[in-house]
Amino acid sequence: MSDPTPSSPPANAAPPPPELRWSGLTHVGRVRRNNEDTFLALTFDGHEVHYLGKTGQASLAGADYVFAVSDGMGGEKSGEFASRIAIDRITRLLPRNFRLSAAGITGGFEDILVELFSQIHSDLIEFGAAEECAGMGTTLSLAWFTPQRMYFAHVGDSRIYYLPHDGGLTQLTHDHSHVGWLRRNGQINERENRTHPRRNALQQALGAGNQFIEPHVGAVAYRPGDRFLICSDGLNEGLWDRQLEELIRTPPPKLADQTPAQRLVEEAVHASGSDNTTAVVVEIPAIPSAP
Fold this sequence. Notes:
It is a single chain. The strands form 2 sheets. Strands 2, 3, 5, 6, 7, 10 and 11 form a 7-stranded antiparallel beta sheet that branches. This protein has a 6-stranded antiparallel beta sheet with strand order 4-1-13-12-8-9. It is globular, with a radius of gyration of 20 Å. It is of the alpha+beta class. The model has no long low-confidence stretch (mean pLDDT 87). Helices cover 28% and strands 26% of the residues. It has 8 helices and 13 strands.
């Protein structure tokens, strides 16, 4: 008797859960003495939180993933402390809300992220009341991946970019600065944005003496082949937007063996290096074609 022919999956079978591939790197740069940037990569379900390595690949079956970049401010060690407080609060507060993702509830994510940022802001304001921590604050750009969507929240001038599978690069987040407003409204171009004398003057940051914040929140329904970049402003001081896309999508042969985050950070530090520089790249791998 011949072997039975393997049966094909039913036409209405649910697709397998998507996978993520990520890489992250932070560098002090060539001018500053300490690194006030911090990046986070973690996975969580309703019970546990696991920190992830700088690179990896995993399935979204049964767990959500969070990637974030914060850029501290305040001088000396205060900025470094502020960015680490932000990361610590994320690991404590987000896993409580995994059940919303598991249940497929989408309406509550905005409220969750706004509450998270408000809590971080409140904590930093409290710490900043101490003389040695006066002015302490941080930017924060956070991407929360569920099986259906990437939810994001953001305050400051770190950034989240979206690179859809069919090409192009879009900055999802708004720089919370007057210069960022000018760029969004077409009054200055990318070159003028990068050289403007007030490009680093923030209108919003977590802590840093700000009384109120309005986090920018949103969501993207991603597809296989899509990529996302989360970065501190040090990366943008060294690389133009077109270079960001080229280094992620089509790196030159000499850099092809490096991770996307490594390519970006090292090239940005080589070109500028005036600030701490951090990048996290997350990809939803394309589904292989059937033979």
